[in-house]
Amino acid sequence: MGVQAAVNSYRDLLVWQASMDLAVICYASTKDFPKAEVYGMTSQIRRASTSVAANIAEGYGRENTGSYSQFLRIAQGSLKELETLVILSQRVGLMTDGATSRLLVQSDEVGKMLRSLIRRLQVKS
After folding, report:
1. Which residues contact 106 (CB under 8 A, 6 or more apart)?
2. End-to-end distance of the chain based on CA atoms, in angstroms?
3. pTM for this structure?
4. If the chain, 125 residues long, is cut into consecutive pieces of 10 residues, what is the mean pLDDT of each piece?
5. Using alpha carbons only, how large is the chain's radius of gyration in Å?
């Protein structure tokens, strides 16, 4: 088993790093959406993906474990919202099967990491 690096900032959290990667993929995947979607699906996907990383960071900055866990649960909700928007984008022809698959795989990975972190925090408290 590998040695885990010290966590001195939310930026050191692997789940935050993975959620940032997910947001970058979301931006890339929506850049060619029709202009008519700029305030619709493009904006919603980008907002939801950004919310995942932002809530992980905000929770990390909180003073107590309960508050941190709550922000991680909000991040989970944003992740499920994102998955729904991605699937809908595919179903209405805005997103390719390949882009959808790539986003859902990354989203699943972030979700597993979030659940693991929440469980670890619950054990600590």
Report:
1. 18, 21, 22, 25
2. 25
3. 0.92
4. 69 97 97 95 98 97 92 98 98 96 97 97 83
5. 15
